[in-house]
Amino acid sequence: MSGAHLSSLGMAGLHLEMVSGHVASLAARASQNTGLIGQYSEELENQSIARDAFRAELERVTGLPADLIERRLSL
Fold first, then answer.
1. I want to staple 50 with a disulfide (CB 3.0 to 4.6 A). Which of 14, 16, 61, 64 is the partner?
2. CA 40, CA 25: separation in Å to the nearest integer?
C-alpha cells in the first residue's frame, strides 16, 4: 500500500467519524426537540453514504472484501 492509498483511506475514515459524531449529537438533541427529526434523517443518509465510501476505499486499498475485514475485526 502506498502512502497515497493510506491517505485516501484515512480521509474517508475521518469523514465517516465526523459525520457519525454529528449524527450522535443530533440524536441526543432530537430527543429534546422533535423539530430536528428531519435534519437527523438527512444526516443518517449522509452517514450511510460516508460508510459506503469508506468500505469501497477499504476494499480498493486492501484488495479484500469489506465484509471479510469486518468479520475478522469483530473476532
1. 16
2. 9
